[in-house]
């Protein structure tokens, strides 16, 4: 009886595994291949890493482990945030970099408002503590690329804007 049960179990597993293997569709032309390659976009983390490699930012920037909490402090409904990567400094400099992908225009507007509030908060904090950081804060990049918001405080915000344009264009 055990042998029959074992054989039935093996047969059932074999049929189950065979049914999971689907036929892989191959593109009919090279035009299909190039169109699907263009549809692939970078994640927020990959975009942020590319930006970091192209801008002169403070060396002590580290990826935030809880970037959604930063947005929640500014009353953003984070359920509309599809992807996020936020780099922050140790506090000695105001340098920050964030790439935030939003699911809808309402979340996009809310995220931009939150970032502008954060910039005000940083300006207020650094005006006494580190006044040399205030010009960087005042020239912070806050740019919108489709459903993505790019935020960057660094030495050269014009270079950050050019880098973001090249990544998201």
The fraction of residues in strands falls at: 15-25%
Taken from the alpha-carbon principal axes, the silhouette is: globular
| Computed CA radius of gyration, to the nearest angstrom | 24 Å
Q: Kindly name the structural category.
A: alpha+beta
Main sheet characteristics: 5 strands, antiparallel
DSSP, total strands = 5
The overall pLDDT average reads 81
Low-confidence stretches: 5-9, 11-40
Write down the secondary-structure element order.
Answer: HHHEHEEHHEEH
Distance between the termini: 67 Å
Spatially, the strands of the biggest sheet line up as: 1-2-3-5-4
Helix content: 40-55%
- Number of alpha- plus pi-helical segments: 7
Short characterization:
This protein is of the alpha+beta class and 169 residues long. It has 7 helices and 5 strands.
Notes on the structure:
The structure is a single chain. The radius of gyration is 24 Å and the shape is globular. The protein is 53% helix and 17% strand. It is built from seven helices and five strands, in the order αααβαββααββα. The protein has a five-stranded antiparallel sheet with strand order 1-2-3-5-4, sandwiched between helices. α3 crosses α7. It is of the alpha+beta class and 169 residues long. β4 and β5 form a beta hairpin. About 21% of the residues have low confidence. The longest helix is centred in the C-terminal third of the chain and has 25 residues. It starts with a helix and ends with a helix.
